[in-house]
Design goal:
Elements (H helix, E strand, L loop, with lengths): L25 H13 L10 H10 L3 H5 L6 H11 L6 H13 L5 H14 L9 H12 L5
Helix pairs in contact: 6-7
């Protein structure tokens, strides 16, 4: 790999809120994929359910993206835009990304799982309401922060 390879045993991947080409989730997924290929993924998982939300939106297989992960974010984005089985417009990307940022548990099982995570990483925080909130808090706490 190259200088683009994050070591997820030392630092978390980028927040799911960080955007590339307007897409949330994508930079985090790229970090996890690059770390996986370098054997530095730690406890993070490439092609997890969060990654799959992005992959389903653009209709690209996670294994296909691995072939271009050694390239820069800009080049990977260009590859995704060229190979997406469903090309998305700017407004579609923006709406989808905004919806992802606001997603919260939508059923009882998901709510119970969310509450377990919340209690484990930031039990005193009352501002955690979305999946992105809990991921950010977990990343922070996993590397020594007091959430």
């Amino acid at each position: 790999m190259s200088l683009h390879t994050p070591d997820l045993t030392q630092f978390p991947p980028r927040s799911p809120r960080v955007r590339l080409g307007g897409y949330v989730i994508l930079p985090r997924m790229l970090d996890k994929g690059r770390a996986l290929l370098a054997g530095k993924q730690g406890e993070y998982h490439y092609n997890c359910p969060l990654d799959q939300r992005f992959l389903e939106f653009v209709r690209i297989d996670a294994e296909e993206i691995k072939s271009v992960l050694s390239q820069s974010d800009t080049n990977v984005l260009a590859w995704i835009n060229a190979h997406a089985k469903h090309a998305r417009t700017g407004p579609e990307i923006s709406a989808w990304s905004t919806w992802q940022e606001q997603r919260s548990p939508d059923n009882l099982d998901a709510r119970e799982y969310f509450n377990v995570l919340h209690k484990a990483v930031a039990p005193l925080r009352t501002d955690i309401a979305t999946w992105f909130d809990i991921l950010d808090a977990d990343d922070f706490a996993s590397f020594g922060g007091q959430a």
